[in-house]
Amino acid sequence: MNKYYLLAIALLGVMYINAQDLAYKIPKEANAVASLKGENLIELIPIQEFDKTKVGKEILREATRNRDRQQSVADLGLDISSTGYYFYQITDSIRYHCALMPINDVQKFEKLLRRGKVVEEDGVKIRYKEYSKESVIAWNDKMVLSITGEIIESYFTDDKVRELYNLPERKKGEEGEEELGKYLRDDIFEKWEQKEEITFHYVRNKAYHILNTPITNKQSILANREYVKTIDKKAEASIWVSDFMKIYSDVMKGKMSRYYSSFLYAGMDQAKYERQQFSGHVYAEKDELKMKATYHLDKKMASRMKKVYGNSLNKKFLKYINEDEILGYASYVIDTKGFLTEYPKMMKNNLGGLFETEADIITELLSIVLDEKAISKVIKGDALFLMYDLSDKEVTYKSYKYDDDFKQKEVEKTRTETIPDFLLLLSSSDTGILKKLLKLGEEKGVSSYKDGVYTLKHRELPTELYVSIDQGVIAVGTTLERIKGLDTSTKNVSQKHRKILRKNSGSIYINTKEVLEIAKKFERSKRKKRTLDYIINDIEDIQLTNGKVRNNKMTAELKMKLPEGHKNGLKYLMTLIENLDK
Q: How many Cα atoms are found within 13 Å in the side-chain-facing hemisphere of 485?
């Protein structure tokens, strides 16, 4: 399917019906909900402008293929001035994937549909394909629902359920055969058509229920306080997951039912995961593009995460940064002691009823073998990686060739490798063991020491590495001059980056223009070089941050400022897509 047609699902999946948001059609039990605010998008880029973009033209071409060509996406019969939804729901027997969209002209909408069989009941039409009944499209004169069902096979191993759906009694697994429940894994349905018809029964009833049955406020997702708390009217797109680990466990069980033994399946079924919500938002603001994701932890998990991410980046690292020289940086901060203490507990919790005794033993062994206090002195858990440059370098390596008598002879060859120029900073309050290792390296001929700097050189390394240890800071880099000048060179880091590095448990910063300039040097294609030229002149720095635990939440943000001359993030994104595709 054309990539622009796929984008149409998101851009056209919006609705507005009699000034009422169709969120009320989503059941309260939905496990995940995603939304797209058409009103916000139209405000950022009017329909007339969108029609002229390459994305808009491709959507029209794909949507009206082999039909009368429309002049605007507004003429496709879908109301594109409101909020559209996708939701996912798990029951004991089936998983539902549903997308709700508005209709403002049912006749125009029906012209978009591909061939298929259509049945109608009480004002609701359902289109499906005879060879693929797991997916249907249902609509009335107000809205359209796309729904796909995935049968949960384990549900149909119960004798009463099988009798209800006229499924014959199945033979039990013979000795030595792996089973799902008490039936053979591949013997739940005798024929493919049985599964198709049962799935169709579920999705058809679900479609009628959503489109025709009045749903009270108490029954809809709007009665779910946890979901309502995550709604942000300023966001262009949003997603909410009620229990991330429940969905993960459900998906894994579905896979295991086919590929793993019933023993492992049963163990997975009993696993007790901490309940963790997830919410995410996308903002296309006037001066920046931003994505924000939040993990909502329960009190127990939040308490553990606070211990793991309780530290801050070493202040001494900041004096080693020259913001004008770097291509970017990456920082990561954990409390090593907290991690070593809490991680075995989390693993035991995740295993649940599977290998419970073994999990207890492993946890105890780890607590005995690992001296958290001692390890946390050697490795505190904070790190800062600074990237400076990329360059080609001739590297020698040993190979072998054979003479006329087929005797092996060692030869030295060269090859060109792209070598990064970087500096890695680590904290330690006990550097004794590292110094002993470096001393051992001297004895083995791998390292040497001069003027406070260790030089590491080995045939497996593409370049020399330099190491210095000073005031609890371990510095590892590729440039001797930079390592030597750590304590004397003048550094420059803005208050903005100081705050980002100190306040977050992790961060990534990319000086995009400089990175792409370097990438262009290694690019041979003239077309790709032209594309890079455009991006270099029309892109700003990218910043990703991962916050600490606050109010039982962990938040990650991705930001990119807009270059001058762009009115808002959506228009900029459209322009960027078009130029990248040239």
A: 9
d(Cα 278, Cα 281) in Å, to the nearest integer?
11
Of residues 161, 165, 154, the one with CA closest to residue 188:
154
Alpha-carbon gap, residue 255 to 234, rounded angstroms: 38
Asked which of 495, 523, 548 is the last residue of a domain, the reply is 495
CA atoms of 355 and 358, how far apart (whole Å) = 5
Contact by Cβ (8 Å): 32, 239: yes
**355 and 432 belong to one structural domain:** no
Enter the DSSP assignment of 202: H
With tokens 């082999």, the residue in question is 66
In angstroms, the Cα distances linking 207 to 9, 116, 121, 223 are: 19, 17, 11, 21
- Tell me the residue range of the domain where 355 lies: 336-371
DSSP annotation of 486: T
156 and 192 part of one domain = yes
Indicate whether 175 and 322 sit together in one domain.
Answer: no
What are residue 450's phi and psi, to 5 degrees? -160, 130
- Count structural domains, the chain: 3
Q: What is the pLDDT of residues 169-228, one digit of tens each?
A: 766 554 444 444 444 445 688 888 889 999 999 999 999 999 987 777 778 899 999 999
Q: Are 46 and 240 in contact (CB under 8 A)?
A: no
Instruction: State if pTM tops 0.90.
Output: no
